[in-house]
Amino acid sequence: MLNFATRLALSPLLLAQGLSVRANALHLPEALGPRTGRLGSGPNLSLLILGDSSAAGVGVDYQNDALAGQLTGLLADRFTLDWQLVAKTGATTRTALQWLESHPPAPIDIIVTALGVNDVTHAVPYPLWLRQQKRMFARIRMLFAPRMIYVSGVPPLGSFPILPQPLRWSLGKQAQRFDAGLSRLVHTSSYIRHVPFNRPLLPSQMARDGFHPGPEIYSEWAKEMASRIVSDWPQETEAVRET
Questions:
Q1: What's the predicted TM-score (pTM) here?
Q2: What's the confidence (pLDDT) of residue 234?
């Protein structure tokens, strides 16, 4: 309650700071490189990565250094991987839902999502965002019937060096709230895993715009996702065999 009251009192300053950051921020392009492919050897595995600018690889020059390139490279050591990246700078949960509404059904084993930062910075109301996330998971399940959905946690905006105080504090608190709500939303699901950003975020690891991940963060993110997918996959395969 105190946080809400404080943010309300600071709202004119927060709005002014937000507009200033948007006007003066360095706008980096999405990473270059393929967004679909087939690689590796072993059991077949299909993967869709759905998200915003972080999923699109903003902060590095090429997809090989971004989440998609590093994650697919790690999984290709164990699987014959068919993969696709659908990500766009500025994407929110609402715009992801719009894309899903027009997508034809197709079976995909693994879905990785990376959404939430733009919902926070665009002041999407918390209850609405949770409803949108719930709708997105339902739509994903209907379209793709995935074995597992891995939901990237909302990153700690309170550590983003581009953001001045008190805007950094305000967005950081809201990002924490969103991520905690997301964790609660999916914790009883048998097919959705929340993957939080649970390591310290150093300014030196960020891209030069002070807002997007740098190569080291993308590498750690991909390793965490790959580890969870690899450890879960035998259990999921066995469960299918038993049904």
A1: 0.90
A2: 66
